């Protein structure tokens, strides 16, 4: 079996080095100084690769530079080889599952960075029978790389020129849903288009989110943007079914489906609701030790453009998305307990590389709630967030946020931030 383990490592070696790049100075694009021929060509190339607008191509170049942007495009379109599992700690231990796989000659290995994940040589179309049985029993569950939960929004422009989004469905990027592509425009609107927002990465990165969230036994936890995926189960398992877990879904259909999933996997301490954000902040103010916000976002620079998925198109779309994210994070802060004898935490994450959806949103919370501060996430993956960006200056503690890029870390990209109320005693960090 040791030889199989070595071969598994060999299998991943090309994957680990595929998107490495030398440390070169990023080529920045400044539209205010005009675009020379080279810059125009660079923007055109990135615009075409990402199937996006010139405006968003420039935004990507400002974050990455040309070389890193093109590496990112290749990485997000690449699905890693293998079958990825997470142990359900409520029903089994990783050691037990590993022993059973070893006895059945299933070629698997244990990633060093996780205590609950198991990786198997193979592909999703040929899952070993033993593993299928383990999944059906709820002892472990599949992680899907390059797959996200989607919210399908109706993009409406009314005669005054104002833009708004109306939720009309949800699904996953696997489905490539565009269910309203044949809808007729409402007479009251100037035009109707579809746009998809993304949240809840369903690959191995979700295990990293668990490390950042770090819920403890007996705590009260609020997940503000829950979906019918493995994240809620992971939180419940880390809490060992103690305390209180409230999972607030973004779509009414997710309530019943998530309840069924939780029951199958043995999570008993969770209440599922689809309460509105404003009502949540009022009725559950100062009620939770930890609040988790996996905010719906544009997916720019993380989610690969696919047919059937209409992504954020321009600054008007982005402005509406960011406004919703800011309302979410303010509401999340309202739900945190503020006690002197115990510390509460808020975790904010997106699957977008845009500063407008990440550092800008965190700074908005810090400006609105001066008593809050950014603290270390507890993970070393990725690079620090921006403390300043193209003339904008953020809190000096913004360096504690993390940007995990697909082409550098070989997993779905995310932005991670952890916040708490200011406290001089750093022992309260956890």
TrEMBL record:
Domain SAM-dependent MTase RsmB/NOP-type: 211-422
Stretches of the chain forming a coiled coil according to its record: none
Alphabetical keyword list: Methyltransferase, RNA-binding, S-adenosyl-L-methionine, Transferase
Annotated catalytic residues: 351 (nucleophile)
One of the Pfam families matching this protein, by short name: Methyltr_RsmB-F
GO biological process: RNA methylation
Entry protein name: SAM-dependent MTase RsmB/NOP-type domain-containing protein
Organism: Cherax quadricarinatus (Australian red claw crayfish)
């Amino acid at each position: 079996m040791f030889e199989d383990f070595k071969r598994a490592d060999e299998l991943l070696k090309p994957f680990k080095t595929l998107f490495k790049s030398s440390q070169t100075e990023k080529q920045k694009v400044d539209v205010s100084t005009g675009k020379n021929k080279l810059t125009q060509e660079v923007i055109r190339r990135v615009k075409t690769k990402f199937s996006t607008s010139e405006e968003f191509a420039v935004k990507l170049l400002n974050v990455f530079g040309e070389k890193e942007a093109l590496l990112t495009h290749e990485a997000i379109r690449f699905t890693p080889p293998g079958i990825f599992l997470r142990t359900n700690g409520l029903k089994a231990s990783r050691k037990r599952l590993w022993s059973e796989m070893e006895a059945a000659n299933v070629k698997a290995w244990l990633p060093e960075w996780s205590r609950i994940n198991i990786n198997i040589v193979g592909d999703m179309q040929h899952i070993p029978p033993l593993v299928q049985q383990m999944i059906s029993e709820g002892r472990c569950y599949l992680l899907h790389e390059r797959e996200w939960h989607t919210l399908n929004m109706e993009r409406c422009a009314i005669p005054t020129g104002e833009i708004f989004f109306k939720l009309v469905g949800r699904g996953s990027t696997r489905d490539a849903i565009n269910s309203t592509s044949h809808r007729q425009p409402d007479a009251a609107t100037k035009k109707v288009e579809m746009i998809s927002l993304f949240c809840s990465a369903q690959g191995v990165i979700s295990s990293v989110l668990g490390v950042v969230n770090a819920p403890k036994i007996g705590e009260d936890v609020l997940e503000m943007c829950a979906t019918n995926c493995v994240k809620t189960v992971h939180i419940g398992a880390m809490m060992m079914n103690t305390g209180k877990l409230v999972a607030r879904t973004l779509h009414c259909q997710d309530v019943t489906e998530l309840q069924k999933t939780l029951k199958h996997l043995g999570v008993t301490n969770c209440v599922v609701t689809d309460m509105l954000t404003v009502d949540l902040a009022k009725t559950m103010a100062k009620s939770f030790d930890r609040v988790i916000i996996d905010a719906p976002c544009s997916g720019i620079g993380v989610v690969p453009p696919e047919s059937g998925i209409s992504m954020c198109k321009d600054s008007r779309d982005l402005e509406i998305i960011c406004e919703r994210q800011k309302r979410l994070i303010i509401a999340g802060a309202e739900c945190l307990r503020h006690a002197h004898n115990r510390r509460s935490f808020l975790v904010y994450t997106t699957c977008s590389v845009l500063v407008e959806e990440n550092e800008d949103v965190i700074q908005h919370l810090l400006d609105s709630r001066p008593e809050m501060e950014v603290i270390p996430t507890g993970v070393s993956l990725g690079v620090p967030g921006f403390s300043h960006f193209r003339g904008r200056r953020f809190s000096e503690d913004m360096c504690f946020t993390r940007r995990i890029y697909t082409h550098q870390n070989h997993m779905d990209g995310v932005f991670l931030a952890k916040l708490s109320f200011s406290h001089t005693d750093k022992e309260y960090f956890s």
